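Render this sequence as a predicted structure.
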Amino acid sequence: MARSKASMTAQRTSWALPGPVQTLAPGVLLCAAISLAAVGVQRAEERFFGHGYVEALVLAILAGAALRSSWTPGVAFRKGIAFSGKTLLEIAVMLLGASISTAALAAAGAPLLLGILLVVAASLVISYGLSRALGLSATMGLLIASGNAICGNSAIAAVASVIEADAEDIASSIAFTAILGVIVVLTLPVAAGLLRLDEMRYGALAGLTVYAVPQVLAATVPVGPIATQLGTVVKLVRVMILGPLVFGVALARRATRGAPGPAVRFSIWRFVPWFVVGFVGLALLRAAGVIPERALAPIQTTTAILTIMSMAALGLGVDIRQLRHVGARVTAAVTLSIMALATMSYVLISLLAP
């Protein structure tokens, strides 16, 4: 009888999941459930309103934070939540490199390309300066500046991974940036009529000011196909700056920390996170044609899923009550930043107009 019980116990043990998987599974599955609900809400938006005005990524972090405000995840969930918020996010950032097409650079043209680079650089400086002047931390200022100048939530998430930002800072910057991003999408077509912009100039303005690629489509489709095409190209050029920005932030962070002890032999892994190297490598492979076109859709889908799950994890680590302490200042910083970006963008397209 004893042998029988021992045999049954051994059999159950042999079918058990590996230790690390058992440890991570509860938290990862919780994040996956929140992400699935967020995607469902976005799909409902698209069905009833024609566009997903609030992205699943934003919905996931808001849902996670709402859940966290009424329930504190137990010890069994913590490692999986931490894994989703860090490792899955780093994988998503790396995979984002495969979606970058250098053909966008050639299509944009040299004058517009130079103008985009100048506007992005100026926006980074101005947004960061405004944030600091309003009393926000350097970390929050960098997150807001990155999101405003480049690609909203994706840029915030990527830079946050490098600077190891707190969940509260990430959630605050994403939440308020997302709200203004939706407002921009809704008001930009109205501005096109008031400013009497043609499709090309409006498309360039939308690509320069709207945060996310899907939002560019939502803002430009009502105006016309030319606006949509040019807006998408300009937006992709902005997205391509994410890699160099994250690379530069990583180097600057290592330099400011200093190198204790005697000098050591140079190694790229000491200065740049592995996922940044992976991002650049995948972008180069895409440019060389090594990554086939048919592989892009699955890669983009995987990237989106991992990013949404990581945002759900970040939301689960946020105490909403702490957001009240920075809400007004963050709102002011993001609002002033988008106004400055829109002004510079309008000046640029006015100068480049034939």
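Summary. DSSP finds 18 helices and no strands in the chain. Residues 19-49 form the longest helix (31 residues).
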